[in-house]
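Suppose you are handed a protein chain with no further information: no name, no annotation, nothing but its sequence. What can you learn? This example shows the usual starting point.
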Amino acid sequence: ISQVLGYIAFIIFVISSSAWGDILPFLDSTLFLLGVILVAVAAFGRLWCSLYIGGYKTNILITVGPYSISRNPLYFFNFLGAIGVGFATETFSFPLIVAIIFAIYYPLVIKGEEEGLKKRHNAKFDNYLHRTPCFFPNIFLLNEPDTYIVNPKIFKKDLFYALWFVWALGILELIEELHDWHIIPCLFKIY
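A reasonable first move is to predict its three-dimensional structure. Written in structure tokens, the prediction is:
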């Protein structure tokens, strides 16, 4: 579902552009900068999560690193990245739509995953559930071990997924240039 919605948003972006540049020229640059910052945090956060979860996800309940401050840090960082890409469109509409989709879709995903974790890890998961926030991290709960074994093959694969937000920024900028050069027509403006 996320991919289909992403493709639809991409198509809309290809045939539209931000209306803010015509009204408040500084605002589109500010929105893009905000998007870049959120994407950078998201990419770093996804990599941080991948260090801990890569290769362990199905067998072990991970409760350290980013998983000590949120039960769903990957989804949290995906949210930041998607909102960041939304702001990089230099509109308020795209990040608002992303936030609404996340608010509707991801609680259902999280509930389903937590039911599976409860069955697999029983009381250990119950304890984790009661002490760790579901989505928004509590940095004061951070518990990082001195050492941790990482699977480099899985981490390299996860690196690709963590950086797609960064690639999305480049694609958005390319499309904006193609609009400016009138190679791709802009059919309507979005706020």
